[in-house]
Specification:
29% helix, 35% strand, 316 residues, alpha+beta
Length: 316
């Protein structure tokens, strides 16, 4: 983006991930482009070329003057743009409006806010520009013993959830990622996963010590292509919701799989739920992490809530 280009306050930046949804972004973009023009949008489009490219494009274009950003992609691209919004130094993050035209694999953030997967209906929602100010989570973690920070806007998963996400992401890189692939690995990875003992502290109080199967921390409710693993999460209440699945048998994972989708998982005796503003997790071995579907690093973790800090465009 040229620094001397004049950008009006109403102009939109469209960040397109052509590889999203097994290249659905690339296939649908010409139709989306035409419909945006037909609906009178004044916009400039840019395309991602590699991992974290959307983050850098976001920082660059906010510096250039854009304040309205739309993702043509999925949860992973939204996460990259979110991190660009929070890493840039030009404006307070909540001054940016963020919307989406979903073409991703899971599109779980959209489920929370009634954003349809049909691109025309999604564009119509953008045109109405109904705002919602949601919370954001900040994670401190390690990768190859180096500390990192990542922001997330939907759900972060650890343990078994992170293993399933990693395997699914490897398929995505080959253009084969689907929600069914995620569900397949929910079962296929059972024979590979090893339980690790962890210690969980929430708001400076130790709440759990023991072997962990899987764990989710949610700003919103959905992940994994429609699973409702943090069904009580409210995206603007100033708290993170936690669902912890303790050590369990493979048989019980098969038996209770359906409860991942209807939210009743949290009623099982093998599940603990919590809520808090600061969450610390330590472990005897490495527990791995994913956030908004993006595979990241490993323990120790510190989660912090940033209340009502992101302005998003939502459905009715």
């Amino acid at each position: 983006m040229a620094e001397n280009q004049s950008i009006s306050p109403a102009q939109w930046l469209i960040i397109v991930n052509p590889n999203a949804g097994s290249k659905k972004g690339e296939k649908e973009w010409p139709r989306i482009h035409t419909y945006l023009q037909q609906q009178g949008f004044d916009f400039h489009s840019v395309f991602t070329a590699h991992r974290d490219h959307a983050m850098h494009l976001t920082i660059e274009n906010i510096e250039a003057g854009y304040r309205n950003i739309v993702v043509v992609g999925g949860d992973g691209t939204m996460n990259e743009v979110l991190n660009g919004i929070f890493l840039q130094q030009k404006v307070v993050p909540v001054e940016i409006s963020l919307g989406i035209i979903p073409v991703g694999t899971g599109n779980d953030w959209c489920r929370m806010f009634n954003i349809p997967f049909d691109y025309k209906k999604a564009v119509d929602i953008l045109k109405k520009k109904q705002p919602f100010i949601q919370d954001v989570g900040k994670i401190s973690y390690f990768k190859k013993e180096t500390p990192h920070i990542r922001y997330f806007m939907n759900v972060a998963g650890m343990g078994y959830d992170a293993l399933v996400a990693k395997k699914t992401n490897l398929l995505k890189e080959k253009g084969k990622g689907t929600p069914l692939a995620y569900l397949y690995y929910v079962f296929a990875s059972l024979f590979q996963y090893k339980f690790i003992e962890g210690i969980i502290e929430i708001d400076d109080k130790k709440v759990f010590k023991g072997e962990i199967f899987s764990m989710n921390i949610g700003i919103c409710k959905f992940n994994g292509g429609g699973m409702k693993q943090v069904p009580n999460a409210i995206p603007d209440d100033g708290f993170m919701d936690v669902t912890l699945i303790k050590k369990t048998s493979k048989f019980k994972v098969f038996r209770y799989a359906g409860k991942l989708f209807d939210g009743t998982l949290v009623n099982l005796p093998i599940v603990n739920t919590y809520q808090g503003k600061t969450i610390r997790i330590r472990s005897t071995g490495k527990i791995y992490l994913e956030a908004d579907g993006e595979s990241l690093g490993h323990t120790p973790f510190v989660y912090e809530i940033i209340p009502r800090s992101l302005k998003v465009i939502i459905g009715p």
